[in-house]
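Design a sequence for this backbone.
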């Protein structure tokens, strides 16, 4: 050891640490390291004395930071840890002591002091204490303190969310505070993320989740659903809450779909939620989003679809058939399975599914197995049911029919309109009837609208005898429009107009007793139609004339 070192003392070594000459400071540090652990109490005592002076002296700043590093490297006795940490907490703002150098053992030995301080100290002192907790696993006794930080006013939310996962064991004591944060902007998103990250040790707060899920169309409902969807995978009570929300509110249905869309794979119970959303949704957008799930995981949802298509309510059956439309791989297979069931099960087709499900059934058949002979046979069964019950045949069903069957349906529909003198039929009816079959028929919407007007009537009392007379203007114009379009379909329609029967109109008093009766003659209308038919050579009436005619090839 050189002359300098032979004269070194603990006091001189500490003083050397404050030198701006690196060589001198290194000599002081070397002496203190060589004489551990004898000089550790002295070093700790000097650290406590020097740190308060560091705010005013560069020399004391250097000595304090170098002494800090030496104490962190040393095996500091337990009794020295609390004074050491207390000094760090009280250090001036202009002196930085790198936290990564501080051993966890020092914090552990000083923990009792730190927990007491965090409970009782002022806000500024709390700010200095919290970073120490990041060094160690924390005991459950600290949870009430951390829970008290989980609010907008504390200023320590971020720190608390970092520390809570470091607490050993069950985290229930912070549950209420964490879930309360979900309703706070902008803290709610951070709280939701923390709840999910800690879900293994933080039981779901069922009461608060239920309240939030029923808070319709709010941000807190969306955050609650973000939490509830993954929590429901392991908790039947949370799953039941999601079911309740689906039944109660469209916004909940939308948010649950959004949460499920983010999952790469869906479990069977989650597909049940999607199905429940479809059945209860009153939004076309939500319905379309939900049905897309059935195109993502076709094989796994096939049993669900087959079950509801055969055992569900009428609404569930209709939804099931719509969902099949999104199943590009499994759709044809499922279609054939259901086709073979529905063609022979009248009770399923007419009683369980019913008329309201006919469009979805027919549309699915057309998309997936429309070329199958049984598809046309099933469409005919649905057509016959509609005719027998005086119901309009859905156009989806009509599109599946063989040509002769389709012609019969159109004829039935036209005669139904004819027999009512067009009363109750509007351009909207025309649009609905032609939807999906416009490429199969030999007339356009304008022709059909003209037909409805041509068989209609209006009357007034403007005659000199004060008797009712036909107002020809609109009706005659419609007949003339039909006369100007020479097609097999319009010839059929003119045949119907030529058979238009005169109509007896009765008038009653307020008691219902008949007070007058008169007859409206449609002879002029019949004559207009017959004249045109004669000009055309009296083409025969035939139902197939309503269909698009194939042009001959020469």
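Sequence:
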């Amino acid at each position: 050891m050189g002359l300098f070192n032979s004269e070194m003392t603990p006091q001189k070594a500490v003083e050397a640490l404050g030198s701006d000459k690196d060589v001198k400071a290194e000599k002081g540090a070397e002496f203190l390291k060589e004489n551990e652990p004898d000089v550790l109490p002295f070093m700790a005592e000097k650290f406590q004395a020097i740190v308060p002076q560091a705010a005013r002296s560069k020399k004391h700043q250097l000595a304090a930071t170098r002494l800090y590093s030496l104490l962190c490297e040393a095996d500091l006795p337990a009794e020295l840890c609390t004074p050491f940490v207390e000094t760090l907490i009280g250090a001036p703002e202009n002196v930085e002591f790198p936290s990564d150098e501080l051993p966890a053992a020092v914090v552990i030995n000083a923990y009792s002091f730190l927990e007491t301080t965090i409970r009782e100290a002022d806000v500024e002192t709390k700010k200095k204490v919290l970073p120490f907790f990041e060094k160690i696993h924390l005991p459950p006794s600290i949870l009430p303190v951390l829970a008290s930080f989980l609010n907008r006013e504390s200023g320590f939310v971020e720190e608390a969310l970092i520390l809570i996962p470091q607490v050993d064991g069950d985290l229930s004591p912070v549950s209420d505070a964490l879930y309360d944060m979900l309703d706070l902007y902008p803290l709610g998103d951070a709280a939701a993320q923390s709840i999910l990250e800690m879900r293994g040790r933080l039981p779901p707060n069922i009461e608060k989740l239920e309240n939030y899920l029923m808070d319709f169309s709010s941000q807190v409902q969306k955050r609650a659903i973000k939490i509830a969807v993954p929590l429901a995978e392991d908790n039947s009570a949370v799953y039941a809450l999601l079911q309740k929300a689906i039944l109660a509110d469209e916004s909940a249905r939308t948010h649950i779909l959004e949460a499920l869309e983010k999952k790469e794979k869906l479990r069977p119970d989650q597909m049940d939620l999607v199905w429940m959303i479809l059945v209860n949704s009153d939004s076309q957008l939500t319905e379309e989003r939900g049905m897309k799930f059935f195109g993502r995981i076709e094989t796994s949802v096939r049993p669900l679809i087959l079950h509801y298509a055969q055992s569900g309510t009428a609404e569930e059956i209709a939804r099931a058939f719509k969902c099949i439309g999104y199943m590009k791989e499994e759709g044809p297979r499922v279609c054939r399975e259901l086709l073979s069931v529905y063609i022979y099960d009248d009770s399923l087709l007419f009683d369980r599914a019913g008329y309201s499900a006919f469009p979805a059934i027919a549309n699915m058949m057309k998309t997936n197995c429309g070329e199958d002979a049984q598809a046309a046979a099933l469409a005919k069964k649905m057509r016959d049911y509609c005719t027998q019950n005086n119901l309009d045949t859905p156009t989806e069903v009509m599109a599946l029919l063989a040509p002769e069957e389709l012609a019969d349906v159109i004829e039935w529909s036209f005669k139904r309109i004819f027999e009512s003198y067009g009363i109750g039929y509007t351009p909207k009816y025309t649009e609905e009837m032609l939807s999906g079959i416009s490429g199969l028929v030999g007339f356009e919407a304008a022709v059909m609208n003209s037909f409805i007007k041509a068989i209609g009537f209006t009357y007034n009392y403007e005659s000199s005898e004060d008797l009712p007379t036909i107002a020809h203007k609109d009706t005659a114009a419609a007949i003339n429009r039909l006369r100007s379009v020479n097609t097999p379909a319009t010839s059929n329609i003119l045949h119907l107009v030529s058979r238009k029967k005169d109509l007896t109109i009765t008038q009653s008093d307020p008691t219902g007793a008949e007070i007058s009766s008169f007859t409206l003659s449609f002879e002029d209308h019949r004559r207009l139609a017959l004249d045109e038919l004669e000009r055309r050579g009296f083409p025969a009436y035939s139902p197939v004339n309503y269909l698009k005619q194939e042009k001959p090839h020469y």
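The chain has a mean pLDDT of 89.
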